[in-house]
Amino acid sequence: MTDRTAREIWETALGEIQVQVNKSNYRTFFEKTVGLSCETGRFLIGTPSVFVAEYLDRSQRSLIEKTLIALTAPGTSVVFQVTGANAPGRSETRVPQREAVFFNPRYTFDSFITGAANRMAFAAAQSVAENPGHGYNPLFIYAGVGLGKTHLLHAIGSSAQAQGRKVLYISAERFTNEFVNAIRLRQTEDFHRRYRSVDILLVDDIQFISGKEQTEESFFHTFNELHNANRQIVVTSDTPPGALPLVQDRLRSRFGWGLTVDIQPPDLETRMAILRDKSVTHGVVLSSEVVELIARTAQGNIRELEGALNRVTAYAQLVGAAPTLELVKKALASVSGRSGGGHDGLPPVPHNRIISLVAENFQVTREDITGRRRDKKTVLARQVAMYLIKQQNGCSLAQIGEEFDRDHSTVIYACEKIAGELAHNAYLDRLIHTIRESLAG
Ligand code: ADP
Ligand code: MG
Hints:
The chain is of the alpha/beta class. It has 4 domains: 91 residues, DnaA, N-terminal domain (GMP Synthetase, Chain A, domain 3, 2-Layer Sandwich); 145 residues, P-loop containing nucleotide triphosphate hydrolases (Rossmann fold, 3-Layer(aba) Sandwich); 72 residues, Helicase, Ruva Protein, domain 3, CATH 1.10.8.60; 90 residues, DnaA protein, C-terminal DNA-binding domain (Chromosomal Replication Initiator Protein Dnaa, Chain: A, Orthogonal Bundle), CATH 1.10.1750.10. 56% of the residues lie in helices and 10% in strands. The chain is built from 20 helices and 8 strands. It has a 5-stranded parallel sheet, sandwiched between helices. Strands 1-2-3 form a 3-stranded mixed sheet. Helix 9 links the parallel strand 6 and strand 7. Helix 12 packs parallel to helix 14. Bound molecules: adenosine-5'-diphosphate and magnesium ion (MG).
């Protein structure tokens, strides 16, 4: 869909919204918004200020999505982007690069550091980006969390898109939600058409569709149509195809038709290479000893490694000194479990303070967050609270679970979900940033 159409669709939507909200509300919050783009089920709306973006996101999302869904496709979700008061005006043509919106510009082949543990996956990903539908179809990539699955999918996506291919990236979780919506709205035809009209379909975390029978069925047919038409399919998962607890054996066996590659946790050399690369991006200079110490401390996955580097960088900035070995040891003390202190080497923030701030920012109550409510807003607030407690204080998952009266797998899920969301949800990113600032202040 072109940006021009997005603008027109939004104009139409505004016409409908105008009769549903009161006049001053409309003036203050809707009048200066503009439809920027619409792709892969995300409708990007430009707003004149953060204030407007936050209000719309918080209070008008369902009205906006309902209106847009009626005009576009089931499952469409909105993303707000602050474009400033002057630009882009409705009649202006300046629009952001669409690619940058949908594929994380940090997740490219260039920024992917290879080593023995991920070389196969990297080569296969490059190959399908260059030559979709011809070699390995499907390409099935499996790995534990934080090892680069999403990174590779985005890299394939942006690279192929730059070559003019029609690419669709979707998490299996979202695929499921959209499918369920499509059924509810009796728009499964549109739903299927959307997925079956692409050159490359990238499906992240396929394990999420396990056991959801109708969604599996729908995906099975999508898979077949694309495969028969020599369209490329790339799937990621946390287990090999054989271990996926799918209802459909035939879907599981299809996943094995092409090439299956795994990514293992990186070895020390690769971790060091990644740190060197990322420290350049961060603009910090690290000695080899420091790089090695961080790489030895954060062994699990690359997200952890990045977290450790971020802490070291933040700590160095805080104390105003270049990161020496001593300083790194201090900054990472809580990670390696030698200190009960906060994650930044700072005193831990009381959990109830984090929960209160999250509650305030999400406009729910503290009791909602620690309670059992299941509506979308409360669940998100709860997940953010878990994520922040984990990030700020480095508590164990079990500890956090206890606080919320949930088991540790719920906490893992929450942390991964939020970490993943942050990659493409600028609003959430900002909100969490705001909460963090309040915590520090
Ligand atoms: P997954 O989807 O497997 O959980 P991600 O793709 O989200 O993992 O990766 C977690 C983080 O680690 C991301 O910030 C990503 O850019 C980074 N990362 C993963 N693998 C590499 C790599 N080989 N080189 C550089 N960065 C990497
Ligand atoms: Mg991922």
